[in-house]
UniProtKB/TrEMBL annotation:
Keywords: Membrane, Transmembrane, Transmembrane helix. The chain crosses the membrane at residues 26-45. This is Conjugative transposon protein TraK. It comes from Flagellimonas profundi. The keyword Membrane applies.
Length: 212
C-alpha cells in the first residue's frame, strides 16, 4: 500500500517537473521569438530610414512632382539648394503683364521661400509702382539663369545667382543683368515651402541694363 502511495506521489512529482520544464521551454522560446522580432523590426526601420534619406523631391515652380533617389548625400543637398534658389528667382523676377499673376507668384509662393529681406525688396518695388508699370506697359520678363554658386564650407550656405532678365516690349528684346546674393538656412518643410529651406539676407547686387 505504501509502495503504491509512493509511486503515485513520484508520478505526480514527475508530472510537475515535466510541466515546469515545458513551461520553461515555452518561456525561452517566447523570449527568443520576441528578441528575433525586435531585431527584425529594428533592421526594417533602419533600412526604411536609410532609404528615406536618399529620397528627395523633384520640384517644379514650388510644386512637388515626384520623388527621386540620390545616393550621394552631398549631391542631394546641392540639387535641393540650387533648386530652391533657382525657383525663387524664377517666381520673383520672371514677370508677366498681369498683376494677378505677379501676386500669385510672389506673394503666394516666392515670399514663403525667403525671409523679411525678400519682403522688404518686394514692398519697395510695389511702392515704386514697378509692377503696375509692367502691367500697364505690357512688358514680359523672362529669367535666364547663367549659374548658381553655393559655398558649403560654412553654415548658413552663402549663394550667388548670376543671370539675366530678358525683357520683351513693343516687339523689341532687351536684357538686364541680374546678380543676387544671400544665404540658405534649413527650416521646417511646409505646404508652401516643400524644400525645407529659406533664403536669408537676400540682396540684389546688380540689375543694370545690358548694352546691345
Amino acid at each position: 500500500m505504501r509502495n503504491m502511495e509512493f509511486n503515485e506521489g513520484y508520478r505526480v512529482f514527475n508530472d510537475i517537473t515535466r510541466a515546469e520544464k515545458r513551461s520553461n521551454r515555452l518561456v525561452v522560446l517566447s523570449l527568443t521569438f520576441m528578441l528575433f522580432s525586435f531585431l527584425c523590426c529594428t533592421y526594417v526601420v533602419h533600412r526604411v530610414n536609410e532609404s528615406a534619406k536618399n529620397n528627395f523631391y523633384l520640384l517644379d515652380s514650388g510644386q512637388k512632382l515626384a520623388t527621386v533617389r540620390v545616393k550621394d548625400y552631398k549631391r542631394a543637398i546641392d540639387i535641393l539648394c540650387e533648386g530652391h534658389v533657382g525657383i525663387f528667382h524664377e517666381l520673383f523676377f520672371g514677370l508677366e503683364p498681369d498683376l494677378g499673376f505677379i501676386k500669385r507668384n510672389i506673394e503666394g509662393k516666392a515670399l514663403f521661400m525667403v525671409d523679411r529681406s525678400g519682403m522688404r525688396l518686394y514692398n519697395r518695388l510695389v511702392d515704386q509702382d514697378y509692377y503696375e508699370d509692367i502691367a500697364k506697359s505690357g512688358y514680359s520678363i523672362e529669367l535666364e539663369k547663367d549659374s548658381i554658386i553655393i559655398d558649403y564650407s560654412s553654415y548658413p550656405f552663402r549663394f550667388r545667382f548670376i543671370g539675366k532678365q530678358k525683357i520683351e516690349r513693343d516687339g523689341e528684346t532687351e536684357y538686364r543683368n541680374l546678380v543676387t546674393t544671400g544665404y540658405l538656412m534649413e527650416t521646417k518643410s511646409t505646404p508652401n515651402n516643400l524644400n525645407g529651406l529659406k533664403i536669408v539676407r537676400f540682396d540684389v547686387l546688380d540689375n543694370r541694363d545690358l548694352r546691345k
